[in-house]
Amino acid sequence: MARKLRIEYPGAIYHVLNRGDHREPVFRDEHDRERFIATLSEACAKTDWQVQAYCLMGNHFHLVSSGGSKPATCGHFKTSHSEAGDS
């Protein structure tokens, strides 16, 4: 069963959670975590989103963010972080 669509509006606050498949790590090392934060910062600048808090764990992460005027998509962020990780 698909999850319900997220209600989006300016100023909304969201809890974002992402886990690794089969409890696998989502970060390889500290440098990978730093690239993740840098990429997150770039995505926020492009979408006017603000991260209020974050927690990077070994096999998952949490973000608390508030929406801006432009929609932010996990697809954009995932692609950006994957490209950064390939270099």
Whole-number tally of structural domains? 1
Strand order of the largest sheet: 1-3-2
**How many beta-strand segments?**
3
Query: In percent, how much strand structure appears in the residues?
Result: 15-25%
**CATH superfamily, called what?**
Transposase IS200-like
CATH architecture: 2-Layer Sandwich
Q: Return Rg in Å.
A: 13 Å
Task: Briefly note the CATH topology name.
Answer: Alpha-Beta Plaits
Question: How is the biggest beta sheet arranged?
Answer: 3 strands, antiparallel
Order of helices and strands: EHEEH
Q: Give the mean pLDDT.
A: 81
Helix content: 25-40%
- Helical stretch tally: 2
Morphology: flat
Q: In terms of per-residue confidence, which ranges show pLDDT below 50 for 5 or more consecutive residues?
A: none
CATH class category: Alpha Beta
Could you give the distance between the termini?
A: 37 Å
Helix vs. strand class: alpha+beta
Q: In a nutshell, what does this entry contain?
A:
The chain contains 2 helices and 3 strands, in the order E-H-E-E-H. With 87 residues, it is of the alpha+beta class.
Keywords:
24% strand; 3 strands; 2 helices; 36% helix; 87 residues; Alpha-Beta Plaits; single chain
Can you lay out the helices and strands and say which pair or pack?
Layout: E1 13-19, H1 30-47, E2 50-56, E3 60-66, H2 74-86
Antiparallel strand pairs: 1-3, 2-3
Helix pairs in contact: 1-2
Q: Can you tell me about this structure?
A:
The protein is of the alpha+beta class and 87 residues long. It has one domain (13-86): Transposase IS200-like (Alpha-Beta Plaits, 2-Layer Sandwich), CATH 3.30.70.1290. Helix content is 36%, strand content 24%. It is flat and about 35 Å long.
